[in-house]
Amino acid sequence: MSDYIEGNAIEDANAEINRKLHQAFDGRIVRKDLTKKIKEGANVPVYVLEFLLGQYCSSDDPDVIEAGVNNVKHILAENYVRPDEAQKILSLLRQRGSYTVIDKITVNLNIRYDMYEAEFSNLGLKNIPISEEYPAKYDRLLCGGIWCIVQLDYETENEFAPEILSASGDYIQSKKKRQKNITPISIRKLTPIQMPHVDIDELKQGRKAFTEEEWIKVLLRSIGMEPDKFNDRERWLLLARMLPLVENNFNLCELGPRSTGKSHIYKEISPNSILVSGGQTTVANLFYNMGRKTVGLVGLWDCVAFDEVAGIHFKDKDGIQIMKDYMASGSFARGKEEKAASASMVFVGNINQSVDVLLKTSSLFDPFPPEMGTDTAFLDRIHCYIPGWEIPKFRPEHFTDDYGFITDYLAEFIRELRKEQHGDELDKYFRLGKNLNQRDTIAVRKMTDGFIKLLYPNGEYTKEQLEEILKISLEMRRRVKEQLKKLGGMEFYDVNFSYIDLDTFEERYVSVPEQGSGKLIPEGICNPGQVYTVSQGKSGMIGVFRLESQMLPGNGKFERTGIGSDSKSKEAANTAFNYLKANASRISGSISTTIKDYIINYQDLQGIGMTEKLALPTLIALCSIALNKP
């Protein structure tokens, strides 16, 4: 009975969302089950389908929808060009004299003849004259190409090359004289399958009608997911996948099991992102071609995603170095000049072992190729690590049958939002803890900015809602930092991320679920060499201090980090080491203070000033790491 009542409540809530969508975004929404049905039989990008469905099926009337779906199916069957049917389409074009096709069009400027020429991806046509008004109006035609509906004409009798139709319908005489090898095909009309313009104010105004939960559902349904089949945590992780699309120069990594849709959003949902399959690429392709003097993918797309990170390979030796430079600064140097771009970088791949095993044996970056997965400088530039293992494997019920934004509209308003900045909004209510260095702070601010733009494009949110965003942002960055600590040792000791509420001055710590709780002293047994001590700090307050130790081959040196210039604390630590040197054999015969070096990092977890009472905890930490026992 309770399930029945709950089901009715969900249905009522969804009906209310649909009512609001029709009211605020009429003509911008589509029923996603229609996309799903046709998508299964047509190999076209989702945004192509939804453009057509938005034209023919924007109604609640089942008869109108059915007629519209049949119309779309007919258009796709007749006009979508399959590469293996290209010659058949060309034959029909010749017979009929005109034909409408759906294909991906790229436009190039032929300088020799001073005219623009179109290239058809599936149809296999090149050097087709096109009016200069189209590339001027739709500049993406010149930058990698976009899907279009194109009306083609076939003319064989004129002495001159085909007359070009301008966008206004006037004929323009081509400067090419008719030759045997000149094409008789011309473009009568071209319509990009993208939103020509997005009114961002309309979006902000429309957002006011929805609650946070409703808006999250709308966004997830717009990318094809059914939010009612995911819990809150999973919804947030799915939203995090959209951050590279809404944020400039954002570096994201997601590793997890297969069939969790890691690359789906970058391949199908947004026409502004590109998925580099297989991982093989060159510096010229990705960044800058010095021969042609052209910018690569990072200058043409909003987001460049690498599928299967294990296979990432640059044919150039300096590829990863240039990528590191770009990921840190958003620019790169090639030849004599420096180029800037705003594309986000996404790395997705599969984890073949369980997370528990990876955490014990290596790091969560293990699937990366060795030159990247062990390079802490490269990994430190990743702003966000989504735990892909927490997202369930997709089944049919995970895909929505309800209303969501047309993919084009979603992609375009997300693109518009890239121009806005809200990263400093958290300063109104919170301050980041002292364990966050500059890169950590930038990463957290970028994520906060992205989530605010996605969830609250109108800029209206509460302190509690901002805190929720801040928590998940800190967690996503801390996951990167925890792995860096494993790989880089003491250099990345400061992983205890926290934030301070400016109203109460209470400091709250944020942990990563796979590595224990958010308490100052985690539950369970610590690692060898790790000691927590409670003592009186420099300020006179009682606080918690953490000691982390490392033992390396050497000649008996003892190094302390994190103490600063406090002479009494240094003296206490030295006393402990001197005691160990004098009494090592009495403690254990396996402890060596002559062929090993010891490093201890001291952390004041609550910012009350370093304690002077470090002798005993230091001795325990040294013995623990020397014996490799917790």
TrEMBL record:
A GO MF label: peptidase activity
Domain of life: Bacteria
GO biological process, one term: proteolysis
A Pfam short name: BrxL_N
Chain ranges passing through the membrane: none
InterPro entries noted in UniProt: BrxL, BrxL-like, BrxL_N
Residues in BREX system Lon protease-like BrxL N-terminal domain copies: 24-154
Keywords: Hydrolase, Protease
NCBIfam families the UniProt entry points to: BREX system Lon protease-like protein BrxL (TIGR02688), Lon_rel_chp (TIGR02653)
Stated name of the protein: Protease Lon-related BREX system protein BrxL
